[in-house]
Each structure stands twice: as structure tokens, then as C-alpha cells.
Amino acid sequence: QQQQQQQQQQNEQEQIPQEAGQSQQPTANEDDEGGKSPDHQLQDEILNMQSKEEEKDKGQEDSSKEKSQSRPEVEIEAERQERLEAPEEKKLQEEEVFEVPAEEHQAPFSFAPPAELELSEAKTLRLKVDAAFSIGLDLVPSWFGMLVEDMDGSPEQPGISVGDCLVSIDGVGLAEKEDTKECEDIFSERLRDGVEVLVEPHCETTAAVPAHAIPKVDWPALLLIFEQFSADYEVVLSVTTDHKNMKLAGPRPAVALARGPATELLAGFFA
After folding, report:
1. Which residues contact 245 (CB under 8 A, 6 or more apart)?
2. Any idea which of 11-15, 34-38, 185-189, 232-236 has the lowest mean pLDDT?
3. CA 206, CA 118: separation in Å to the nearest integer?
4. Are 194 and 170 in contact (CB under 8 A)?
5. Most buried of 46, 212, 236, 266, CB within 10 angstroms?
6. DSSP secondary-structure letter at 103?
7. pLDDT digit string (tens) for 48-88?
8. Measuring CA to CA, how many Å separate 133 from each of 129, 137, 147?
9. Per residue in 145-179, is it b (16+ CB within 10 Å) or e — as a string?
10. Reported confidence tier of residue 223, pLDDT bands at 50, 70, 90
11. What is the CB-side half-sphere exposure of residue 243 using CA atoms within 13 A?
């Protein structure tokens, strides 16, 4: 019996170190939980961050829904209209910013409207012829008739002035003759004291040269063009010495015919 008790004590003493050793060795589960690899830890952190972001977004969405549901419909509609009108307001602001300066808003070049004399009809007058067969007028044949270039006053011819044009004599037309000599011959054949003539008045029209164009124009070249134009239309197209004003002058039918072409010509140079 005594031997059995000793054997039992010996067995108990051997079991104590084994249990102590077992308690010091970590289990597989403990190694998995306490000794995770760096990759596993990084994945866990990423998952946690994503989860928090999703919760935050969901919270903002829920808050926005609650806010929109709590706002009156009138306020929501007003905000929608404001967003729709915003582009138009922005466009108007841009137009104001880039508004063209006032000096660039200049009217196109043009002569003054026809005055009363230019709108009047030809006058019927009677010529005085003296004993020397003189009428006191220096006449030049033209496309429009016999043009009065000068007057010596003997005899006087009331109602006729320098620049006027006699377009018919004794009922026979003097204008639009292919040969100016034909015009002159008709006048000489019909001339007598008291003969009836139809007289077109001399007219003038003016126009201001745009200020911005004065220093830009090649005036010597333009003056040559004026000479050619005047010869073609049998008018006088001229400019003042300071280049500020234009003048178109001649018999009424000539000015009426040249007004349009002269305006177009000068508008191109003064643009």
C-alpha cells in the first residue's frame, strides 16, 4: 500500500511539468488571432475605412432627403427657376462687358438728303438775244444739255445762274446726245430772241468725312479718282483742304444720277 501511494505521487509530479508546458504553447486559434500578417492587417484597415465612408455617405444622403422633404414646394420651385435663368443672366453680363465702344457705332457714310432745289422741277424761261446775237452766257455742250459756265450779264438772263443747264430749246431736247456737237448745233439753230428754254438748276450736296478715316486715307490717290469720277458723271466731286467735308455739285439731273455711285465709292474708302 505504501508503494502504491509513492507511485501515485510520482505520477502526479510528472504530470505537472507537462501541463505547464502545454499551457505555455499557444493554440492554433490563438496564433491566428494574435499573430496576423501585415497584409491581413492592411486589408482590415481598408475594409474599416470603406465601411466608415459608406456610413458617412449614407448619413449625408439621408440628411439631404430629410432636408428636401422638409422644404416647402414653393422654395424648391424658386430655386429651380433661378438655376434655369442663371445662364441668361450670365450671357447678359458678358454682353455688357464686351459692349462695342461708342465710336465704333458710326453710321455709314452718306450725303445729306436732297434739298428743296434738288427736288424741284426744271424752270421754263425765255432767252434774251441782242442785236449782236449775244445772250450773255458762256455755254458748254454736255450729256445733260447746254451747261452755263459763265455769265457776262449782257444781256441779263433773269432766273439763270452759273452751273444751270439748258436741257431743251424751243421744245427740242438737248440732253443725252451721243455727239455733243449735235447738242450745240440744235441750240444754235433754234436760238432767237424770246425763245423758250427749259432750265435745270445747279445743285450741291455735302457730307462729313468720318473722323477716324481722315488720317488713314491716301488722299492724293483719292483726288485722282475724284477727277475721273467728275469727268464720267459730269459733276464736281471735291473735298475741303482739311479733308473733313465732301461736296458733290452739278446740274440737278447730274447730281441725282451721281449721288448713289459717289456714296458707294466713298463709303468704301471711309469704312
Report:
1. 206, 207, 208, 209, 239
2. 34-38
3. 13
4. no
5. 266
6. G
7. 666 766 766 666 666 555 555 555 676 777 777 776 665 55
8. 6, 11, 19
9. bbbbeebeeebebeebeebbbbbbbeeeebbebee
10. very high
11. 16
Comparing CA positions, the residue from 147, 140, 118, 137 lying closest to residue 253 is 118
pLDDT confidence bin for 203, thresholds 50/70/90: very high
- Do 120 and 199 form a contact (C-beta atoms < 8 A)? no
| pLDDT score for 108 | 83
Q: What are phi and psi of 139, to 5 degrees?
A: -110, 145
- Whether the Cβ atoms of residue 213 and residue 192 lie closer than 8 Å to each other: no
d(CA 204, CA 248): 6
Pairs from 45-49 (Cβ < 8 Å, separation ≥ 24) = none
> 198, 213 in Cβ contact below 8 A?
no
> What does the alpha-carbon distance between residue 61 and residue 67 come to, in Å, rounded to a whole number?
10
Question: What's residue 64's pLDDT?
Answer: 57
Q: Using CA atoms, how far apart are residues 230 and 240, in angstroms rounded to an integer? A: 16
Name the nearest CA neighbour of 114 among 233, 235, 246, 207. 207
Placement of cell 440732253 in the chain? 175
- Which residues are within 8 A (CB) of 129 and not within 5 positions of it... i.e. 6 or more apart? 135, 155, 191, 192, 193, 194, 195
Burial of residue 228 (CB within 10 Å: 0-12, 13-18, 19+) is exposed
**Mean pLDDT across the chain:** 80
Type and span of the H or E element at 147: strand 145-151
Q: What digits encode the pLDDT tens for the residues 76-126?
A: 777 777 766 655 555 544 444 444 444 444 678 999 999 998 998 999 999
Q: What is the C-alpha separation between 267 and 249, in angstroms, rounded? A: 18
